[in-house]
Design brief:
Length: 178
């Protein structure tokens, strides 16, 4: 093969690579954590949180600690979600709620730019996988945050961005699915 043909072949390969990368943005994540949260004094049971109708994160009983990832599920090799659907039960009030939350379109880009944080007790620096925290309030308000640390306890440099909000629809009291 002549040098000229080799250069043409490399240029064609480069052009196709650029086209493919631009057409199919890389929104896959090796690891992503999903946390659940509710307000102080509140007690809920979350059935599960479904993302893009493709994959889900476990639920369970959660007690209040707003903006902190109380229960955590790790998922691997998934696309950054665009929609989250959550159903939960207010245990004290006997109410059930369901909400669908549209997430920021540039969530994958935001997650890639998440900085690390410092553990206050020993000064060590960490850069964990990004975490989505799904917060549910007693009035049915749902907030989804993107964060670099599960909570602010013993952490300096925690970043917490709202990436989606919705008002849930109240349903008939249901029996939590176990």
């Amino acid at each position: 093969m002549t040098k000229r043909r080799m250069v043409y072949a490399l240029l064609i390969l480069l052009v196709f690579t650029v086209i493919i990368v631009k057409r199919y943005p890389n929104d896959m994540f090796g690891a992503l954590s999903i946390g659940l949260s509710t307000t102080a004094g509140n007690q809920i049971y979350v059935e599960k949180t479904i993302f893009d109708n493709e994959w889900w994160a476990m639920g369970g009983e959660i007690q209040g600690d707003w903006q902190h990832a109380g229960s955590i599920t790790s998922v691997f090799d998934k696309r950054m979600p665009r929609v989250a659907r959550v159903r939960w039960h207010q245990l004290k009030e006997g109410m059930s709620y369901e909400a669908t939350v549209q997430l920021d379109e540039d969530l994958a880009r935001q997650a890639r730019k998440m900085p690390g944080y410092t553990r206050i007790s020993d000064g060590r620096k960490f850069k964990d996988s990004p975490t989505l925290v799904v917060g549910m309030r007693p009035d049915g308000q749902v907030v989804v945050w993107l964060t670099n640390a599960r909570s602010e306890n013993n952490v300096r440099g925690r970043v917490l961005h709202v990436v989606g909000e919705a008002q849930a629809v109240a349903g008939p009291p249901g029996v939590p699915q176990q």
